[in-house]
Specification:
The termini are far apart. It is elongated and about 50 Å long. Helix 1 runs antiparallel to helix 2, helix 3 packs parallel to helix 5 and helix 4 packs antiparallel against helix 5. The chain contains 5 helices and 4 strands. By secondary structure, the protein is mainly alpha-helical. The protein has a domain of 136 residues: Cobalamin adenosyltransferase-like (Hypothetical Protein Ta1238, Chain: A, Up-down Bundle). The chain has a two-stranded antiparallel sheet with strand order 1-2. It has a two-stranded antiparallel sheet with strand order 3-4. Its EC number is 2.5.1.17. InterPro entries: CblAdoTrfase-like, CblAdoTrfase-like_sf, PduO-typ. GO terms for molecular function: ATP binding; corrinoid adenosyltransferase activity. This is Corrinoid adenosyltransferase. Pathway: Cofactor biosynthesis; adenosylcobalamin biosynthesis; adenosylcobalamin from cob(II)yrinate a,c-diamide: step 2/7.
């Protein structure tokens, strides 16, 4: 059996797909590490939904988990060597499908009149955690792309913008999902109403 520890990261570096070693503190590593964190939080949300007998979103969420792995692999590529690897990529169709899911859930929800505070039920709160981590992943990816010397022949030109767009739509999806879960569980929304000074 292969050992899980390799000792190759003992000096604070990690290997990209393509062989290049970079610091574990690099923004690129922070990007795909945060996608991993998002996936873990999403796994907990799926378990909580199953426990609450809310099955409808589960199939979509499991597919999103696979897409997060796909994006993580693309972000773990050495940008200059990306064309050599045949990895699955996010497409504009994936983004459209998210939008359709958002529209379907929104159809059942009341119009928003206030900002909403996370909470009311553990599953709703977990959906908000997933949303917040997704927003952080998006911000990190934007910062990483802005720091890249992108050229026309660079694999990143084709892959990174779609990843950012997908994450942006995904955080919207998770926000609407949090409201939809509350709707299915008959949980009143915690409206943020600022106190007058």
């Amino acid at each position: 059996m292969a050992k899980i520890y390799t000792r190759t990261g003992d000096k604070g570096t990690t290997g990209l797909i393509g062989g290049t070693r970079i610091s574990k503190g690099a923004l690129q590593v922070e990007c795909y590490g945060t996608l991993d964190e998002l996936n873990a939080h999403l796994g907990l949300l799926i378990c909580q939904l199953q426990k609450a007998a809310i099955d409808k979103p589960t199939k979509v969420l499991v597919n999103i988990q696979k897409q997060l792995f796909d994006m993580g692999a693309v972000l773990a590529l050495d940008p200059g060597k990306g064309e050599k690897f045949n990895l699955p990529m996010i497409s504009s169709t994936d983004i459209t499908n998210l939008e359709l899911e958002i529209d379907e859930m929104n159809f059942h929800l009341p119009k928003m009149t206030h900002f909403i505070l996370p909470g009311g039920h553990p599953v709703v709160a977990q959906a908000h955690i997933v949303r917040a981590v997704c927003r952080r992943a998006e911000r990190l990816c934007v910062a990483f792309v802005e720091a890249q010397p992108l050229t026309e022949d660079n694999f990143a030109v084709k892959s990174y913008p779609l990843i950012i767009q997908f994450l942006n739509r995904l955080s919207d999806y998770f926000f609407v999902l949090s409201r939809y879960i509350g709707h299915l569980l008959n949980i009143p929304e915690n409206k943020w109403i600022p106190e007058k000074q």
